[in-house]
Every structure is written in structure tokens, then in C-alpha cells.
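In the previous chapter we treated chains in isolation. Here, by contrast, the input contains three separate entities that must be folded as one system, with a combined length of 905 residues.
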Amino acid sequence: MSADVIIKAEELTMRFGGLIAVSEFSAGIERGSIAGLIGPNGAGKTTCFNMITGFYKPTEGRVLLNGEDLTGRPPYEACKAGIARTFQNIRLFGNETVLENVMIGCHMRQKTGWLQAVLYLPSYVKEERAIRKRSMELLDVVGLADLASEKANSLPYGAQRRLEIARALATSPSFLLLDEPAAGMNPQETQELMTFIRDIRSRFDLTILLIEHDMKVVMGICEQIWVLDYGVTIAQGRPEEIQANPKVIEAYLGEEYVSHA
Amino acid sequence: MKTSTKISLNLAVTAALGLFLFWAQGSLDGYKIQILNLIAVNIILALSLNLIYGFTGMFSLGHAGFMAIGAYVCSILIMTPDQKEMLFILDAAYPWIQNAHAPFLVAVVAGGLTAAVAGYLIGVPLLRLGDDYLGIATLGFAEIVRVIANNIPRVTNGALGFKGIPDYANLWWNFGWCLVTFYVIVRIINSNTGNALKAIRDDEIAAKAMGINVFRYKLLSFSIGAFFAGVGGALLASLLTTIDPKMFLFTLTFNVLMIVVTGGLGSITGSIMAGVGITALLEWLRFVENPISLGSFELPGIPGMRMVVFSLALIFIILFRREGIMGMREFTWQGARNLLTGKRRAS
Amino acid sequence: MNAAMFIQHFLNSLTLGSLYALIAIGYTMVYGILRLINFAHGEIFMLGAYFVFWGLTLVHLPWPVAMVLSILVTAGLGMLVDQIAYRPLRDAPRISALISAIGVSFFLQNVAIVFFQAIPREVYRPEWLENPILMGDVRVLPLTLFVPLLSFFLMMGLVYIVYRTKTGLGMRAISRDLETSYLMGVPVNRVIAITFGIGSALAAASGIMWALRYPQLQPIMGVVPGFKAFIAAVFGGIGSIQGAVIGGLVLGFIEIMTVAFFPELAGYRDAFAFILLILILLVKPTGLLGAKPEDKV
């Protein structure tokens, strides 16, 4: 189990005033795996994401990426360390083009800055061209290359979700967090999404953690699952184990269902 | 369209501007030349505010403060020690103020740099604030600059201000700086750094998640904007040849804001168009404030009318055309060609 | 500094502080509900003062009538400004309404310049306000007692409206959540209009007393007190009426007392408020009594 853990959450706790949003969340995710974080609405899943990606500073606990302590570092440093994410309520740069959205993801690892741009140095021109090329390649991967010069907020919903993933990939992450990637998708699209997630995992050497309500997706592609309820981890294990766990069924469907079943 | 074609077109436009200025210098009267000068300065100011507000999304109302800093630094440097001795009648200037002297180019750059440093220093604490709080805090900064200028007579000559500042800022200097401002800001916003700034404007949280050090880039944009605001102030001082703290009231910031909003937040083209249009309009409106004589009959001027029309225009734009003239669109050679060829096809 | 002088300064601080507080209440109520810095509020304050003296000099109204009329007219004007310049922008980005407010502010200021000219005008105080009252060594202008007292009564009236009437309940509901209030049947637009009316009435009262206390009228008289009162509201915690009152009083005391104890700082008096603002925004952006706004990821 502790073979090759890329990211480790150690007893992460988040308190907002008197409210405990997440209590002692611990997880170790194996390199190259796809893991799931599930639980009813308000269980604290997104809060976990926010702690791992640096948006919240956990009240207690630590986040380790490849053994490096990232706890309490700002989001851009977490990103630099190799953690990328998408958002539950898509957050694209709406006024920018599809291509620019992806290029912004590349910006973090860019070496030339504004001064080189003003002086129009060859190194800048070269790097900017390389970024453009790489961004187009990423758009090709998510199937948006044709729409590169469209404004991001003019895209249909499904395309916006894919663009958000392409943008996250542009930061060259080793660990990718997807917050409800299948939300609002029809069964056909969901099926494609599952293939797509597996595909990018192997193509970009990713480890993926996703929050998802669609159990078909979670059970279909996740190798490890953590279940949160009211901020407490009530179960963890392989999909079959989770499906059979009475506590999970209770959390999702209520006590009555369990006793009558 | 090929890059080389675009470059040649850009050079052609620059050359045309040069020819126009050459013609204007020789043929136009002083008043019209003054208006052209004001247009150049206003475009510099509008572009710098657009970088801060339109492209990075930081609502700053501190422009008058940066302009004041640029204007004072530049004026102190270009006035001769003798001139300063005559000027500081109530309190003698500090010796280092008295003796400081530099050529115009150095003085303008120094004014810009001092404003940029001020922008950096106040940016560190203030840029963490959002939207309207940032606006009111930067407005506070500008007011503090003004109050300080009033209270350090040995540097600024207090409420009396400076008179007889050398009028070096001619068409060539003003439009030269205007081109520099335009070039630098366009290069920045068209680079990937510019994309990062626009990302911050569109969604700060997502920008952070994309690995952008939001605070650092805000500070960068704010300081560069402050630099050009300082340059604008410096040129204005030499153009008007008199400055005093009263000149740098909130009204000055308001005028720049008006140009940027009218042109379109996040549009360089818009800022330039509105810079020309509004400067001309403001001058044209001056006539309603001056008495008009019709033969033996004299209509009294109506002071304040200019700003009444002006502020009404702003309210109308915000209410009915919030995106301004251009929205976020820009003029491009490609776009112009498409328009032309499209038209040709239609006819 | 002797005791008599101290009392004098104390009363002056109280007067200035109450005037700031009355203006600050209008800022804080509008911000609490619409998250809008009503830039035009300082001009409303100025116009309130002008209206009274118009009533007095042009129409020869008796004092109390002129005052009440001016307050009513100014309240109506405040509601009109909301109606025309802010209401169409309720769904627009917040900064749009702020820019509109800046526009209105300049508009009203310059309309005043057009009508009344930019030159300051002397205000003739009624006789019963002219003669100082002697209390031992302390010479007190009736106004320094009259202003805090009247302000106190006005604030009590406001507290009654906000906490004891249905309209007040509506205001408090909207400041929590505008959309939900609308769905729950709160007549949102009417309540907002009333809020503007009340805020403007208080600003007018403040403007009138200001003009009496510092007997001068000019179109730009609202700018600086307006900014300062806004800062007082931020200091007290924007959205909180108690906060606005405390903020106003604190600012009044800071300005008068600092200059009283350190006369060499008199020239910087107008900067105190802004320095206070920047400090408070850095240390406790929510102000003394303000609630923390949510920033959702």
C-alpha cells in the first residue's frame, strides 16, 4: 500500500469558526493511480481540495507531495510543485481565447518575462512560439484545436470543462485534482470522459484525484476511494469495498434504507 | 497577414504621424498645438490606467497622486537653481532641491521612476484589497500626496506651487513618450505576461490555481502603470509651466477614468480614440464657460457647465453602453483588411 | 491646556463627530444593502445645506420650515439619484455602479457651481445661535450643544425605523441577501429607495448644521466631509449603523484633538482620515463592528 505514494494528506482538519468542515482527513495516493473522493453534498470534499491546493491553510495536519511539505503554501506554489486542479463551477478566463487560456497555464514555467517581451529579445520570441505550439498540442488532446481563437466563455458547457482540463495540464502537473468533471454531462459524454481521464493519465504520467457524484464514473475508473460525510472519513478502499460498506450506503441513502434492505 | 507586412504598416503609420506633427508644428496656431499636446499626454495617462484597471482589473483611483509625484520631481529637476531661488519666496528650498538639475529626458524618467517606486510601496499593502476598497484607498493615497505637497514648502513651495517651469514638452517629446508608452504597454499585454494579467482580471482564484503569483503580477502592473502616470504628470507640468497642489485634485483622476471607460476597459484602441475625442471635446466645451460676445450684446459664460456635460456623458455611457466605444476589441491590420475586402466583395 | 479649553475642544470634537456620523450612516446603509460606495453622498450633503438657504433668502421661509423642507427635498433627490443612476445597474458588475456614482457626484457638484457659482457664500446664522453661553470659564456656542443633541435624536429615530418597523426589517433582510429577500416578498426596490431617502435626509441635516457651524456654503463643501464620513463608516465597520456613529465620533475626536495637542500638524488635518483608512484596511479590513464577507472558492 505504501509502495510509491505521490501525495499524502496527514490528518487534515479545517475549522471555520466553530464549524469543523473537515476532520482529520488522511490519504496517501499511489503514483499513477486514479483516486476518488466522494460523499454527500456539504461533506467537505471541495474543502479537502482547497487545503491540498493551498487555497485554504489547514487548521491542523500536513500535505506532502513527493515527501515535500506543502502545507500552508500559497496556491501558486502548490501549482509550481506539480499540483493542478479544476473547479466545480468552471472558472475559465472568460474574456480570453481558448488558446490564451491554455497559454496562461504555461506561463508559470516560462523563463522570459515582460522585460524581454518589451525588448523583443529572440529568446522571448522563441519561447513564446514554443508555448503557443505546446498549447495547440494540448488543445488537440482535448479536441478543441479548431476552436483555439474563440472566446472561452462562448464555448458550450462540455467544451468548457475540457478546456479547464487542458489548462490544468498546461501547468505540467504530476498530480491533478478534478472537481466534479462529469457534472452536467449526459451518459454518452460521461462515457467519453472516463476514457479521456484514463487516456491523459497515461499520456501525461498523472496521478488523479477526482470528486464526483456520478457513481458510474467513480466506480468505473477509480482504484481507491475515500468517502467523506460531515467532514469525517467514513470509509476508504477499493470500489467493491466501498459499494458494500453499510456506512457509505447509510450516508448516501439514509438509515432507513439500510435497515429495510 | 505576415509579420513583416504588419511591421511595415506600423512603421508607415509612425512615419505618417511624424509628418503630421511636422506639418502641425509649422502650420497650426499655439492653441491647436496645445490641444494636440494634451491629447498625447491624455493618451499616456489613459493607457497607464487601462493597464492597471482595464487589463489587470485593479480599480485604482490614485492616478492624480502618481501624476503629482512625476510633475513635482520633473519640475524640480528642470528648473535652474537661480529660478528656484526666485521661486521659493516664503521658505527657501533645501539645498539639494535647490541645486538639483537635469536634462528634460532624465527629469521625465526620474519623475516616472519616483512614481513607480511610490506605486510599488503603496501597492505592497494596498493591492491585497479588492475592488471598491482598493479604489477608495488609492484615492486616499492621492489625497495624502496632495496634502503632503501642501505641507513641505521647502520642497514643493507649498500651496503656491511652481511657476515658469521650462516648456520643453513640445509635440515631439509628448508624442515620442506617447509612442513609447503605447509600445511598452502593447508589448506587455500581447505577451504571455499580459495573458497572466488578463487572467487575474477575469478570475483571480483561477489565476492562482494556474500558478500565477497574483500579488507579484498585480504589483508589476501597478508599478508600470504608476511609472507612465508619473511620466504623464511630468510632461503635463512642463506643458502647462505651472503646477500647484490644487491641480492634482480627484477631478484629474476622474478625467483619466472617463477616457478609459469611454474608450472601453481593456482596449488600447479605445483609450487612444477616447483620448483624442474627449480631450478635443473638453476643449470645445470650454466655450460654454467663456463669455460669448454677439456684437454689442454679451452672453455670460457658465462656469461648471463643462463638467456638467462631461459627467452626464459618463453616466450615460455607464448606463447605456457599459463596454464603451470598443469594449475589449482592438484594431488590427488583419481586421482592417477583412473589413476592406469584405466591403469590396459586397460592392 | 487648561480644563476650560479641554472642554471646549471636547465639545467641538463631539459636534464635528456627530456631523460625520450623520453622513456616515447614509454611506453605511447604502453599502450594507447594495455594496455600493455612494460617491454622490457628499453632494447630497452639500445640496441639503444650499436648499435651506435658498428657502430662507429667496422664499423667506421661517427657519424651521426651511429646514424641514430642505430635508424632505434632499431625501427625494437621493431617491431620484438611486432611481436614475443606480437602479438600472443592479445586475451590472459592482464597479459600474461605483463609476456611475462618481459621475453623479461630479454632476451634482457642477450643477451646483452652475446655479450657485463656485465662490463661497457667507451664511447668516439666526440670532439665537449667535450668542455664546457662558458656563464658568467655558464659552459655548449654542450650536456645539444643539448639533450633538439634534444628531442624537435623529439617530434614535433611525434606530427606531431600522429595528422596530417593517421597512427596517426589510432593510436588514436585504443587507443579508438581496435575492432571497426579493423571493420572500420584500419590496426590494421600495426598501432601497427608502434607504436612500433616509440616508439623504440625515446627510441634509448634517449639511445644514455644518453650514451653520462653519458658516460658509460652497459647491465643493461636500467632497472632503463626504470622503471622511465614508472613512468613518469603514472604520466602524461598513454596513453597521452603530459602527458608523462610533467611526464618525472617533474621527471627529482624532481631528480636533490631534490639532489641539500638536498644532504643528494642523496642515495635515485632511490627511488624518485617509491615513486612518489605510491603516484600518490593512489591520482589520472589516472595521470595528463589521462582519466578514464570504470569499468562496
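The first strand of chain C starts at residue 121 and ends at 122. The beta strands of chain C are 121-122, 133-135, 138-140, 216-217. Compare these points with the single-chain example from earlier in the chapter.
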